[in-house]
């Protein structure tokens, strides 16, 4: 009897403490939006990735605050940050670490690489060769690094934001579709509008003026609060009809003929079960970030493009017609009914 009541208390505790965590994330979002002007979508997706315990692939032109976004996030979290600049001559050991011989004891010791940090920026991931990409993606998927006979676990708080530049494709190594699937979301960002551009100018001037001053110590979100928030997000109520809606959206990518001959012509391969899991987690995180205690179809639709964009392979015929993956997802949302 005592054991049952203890279990019930443990299950209820995260829900009761959800409000302080939710307030902390609201303050975090407000801070990031002030620092990363004109990229609210990127800020929102970064927080969703943090809550859903996944990794982010961000695509956008240079200078759109991709690096600044994750650096600012790291300032507000209890943890450490590392940036890795991916280049064609990078080696897997430059990411994971390597064994170093120490003459004093005549033994090899593993020197941990930059992947052993809480927040990692993999800048221009498509510039590194396949071996380096696979080393990073294996660490992302398995949350561990194997060197020889030893296996080293990564920290529980571990988020990779990889970036790629859509402008320059010469000398790049595009990520294979199977490896793209390991990213929770593929986010595309664009240039800010004129008003946001003015605000960016003013912020840059202010930062330049204050760069010689003593930096202000900001109150950081503790890792325990992040894990507590993740637990609350995971327990968020989702009606069976919404669950069925997610499943039918994924099935529609695999059996597009059921929803139109055009979709059948456009889709070559549909989303894997990882797509189902990611859509579920992201929809829950989106609902929680917006102060809701349940998940609605609107939350699913809000994250579906970023969650499935890299998981649907289109045919040559679709490419010839100028059909994009986003257009296909729009069509799926229009035609798949809510259960």
Automatic annotation (TrEMBL):
Where in this chain does the record put each ATPase AAA-3 domain? 55-185
Q: Where is each ChlI/MoxR AAA lid domain found?
A: 267-331
Alphabetized Pfam families for the sequence: AAA_3 (PF07726), AAA_lid_2 (PF17863)
SUPFAM superfamilies xref list: P-loop containing nucleoside triphosphate hydrolases
Q: What is this protein called?
A: MoxR family ATPase
């Amino acid at each position: 009897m005592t054991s049952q009541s203890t279990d019930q208390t443990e299950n209820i505790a995260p829900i009761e403490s959800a409000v302080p965590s939710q307030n902390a994330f609201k303050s975090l979002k407000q801070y990031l939006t002030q620092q990363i002007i004109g990229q609210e979508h990127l800020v929102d997706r970064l927080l969703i990735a943090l809550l859903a315990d996944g990794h982010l692939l961000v695509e956008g032109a240079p200078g759109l605050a991709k690096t600044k976004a994750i650096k600012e996030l790291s300032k507000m979290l209890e943890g450490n940050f590392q940036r890795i600049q991916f280049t064609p001559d990078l080696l897997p050991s430059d990411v994971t670490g390597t064994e170093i011989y120490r003459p004093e004891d005549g033994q090899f010791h593993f020197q941990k690489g930059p992947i052993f940090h809480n927040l990692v920026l993999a800048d221009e991931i498509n510039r590194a060769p396949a071996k380096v990409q696979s080393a990073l993606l294996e660490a992302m998927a398995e949350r561990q690094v194997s060197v020889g006979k030893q296996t080293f676990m990564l920290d529980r708080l571990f988020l990779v934001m990889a970036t790629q530049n859509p402008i320059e494709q010469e000398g790049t190594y595009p990520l294979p579709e199977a490896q793209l699937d390991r990213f929770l979301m593929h986010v595309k960002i664009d240039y800010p509008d004129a008003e946001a551009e003015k605000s960016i100018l003013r912020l840059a001037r202010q930062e330049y003026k204050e760069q010689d001053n003593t930096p202000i110590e900001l109150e950081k979100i503790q890792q325990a609060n992040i894990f507590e928030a993740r637990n609350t997000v995971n327990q968020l109520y989702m009606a069976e009809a919404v669950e069925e809606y997610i499943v039918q959206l994924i099935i529609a990518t695999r059996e597009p003929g059921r929803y139109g001959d055009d979709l059948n012509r456009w889709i070559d391969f549909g989303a894997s079960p990882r797509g189902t899991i990611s859509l579920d987690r992201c929809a829950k995180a989106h609902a929680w970030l917006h102060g809701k205690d349940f998940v609605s179809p609107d939350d699913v639709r809000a994250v579906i493009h970023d969650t499935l964009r890299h998981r649907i392979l289109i045919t040559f015929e679709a490419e010839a017609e100028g059909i994009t993956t986003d257009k296909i997802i729009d069509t799926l949302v229009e035609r798949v009914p809510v259960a």
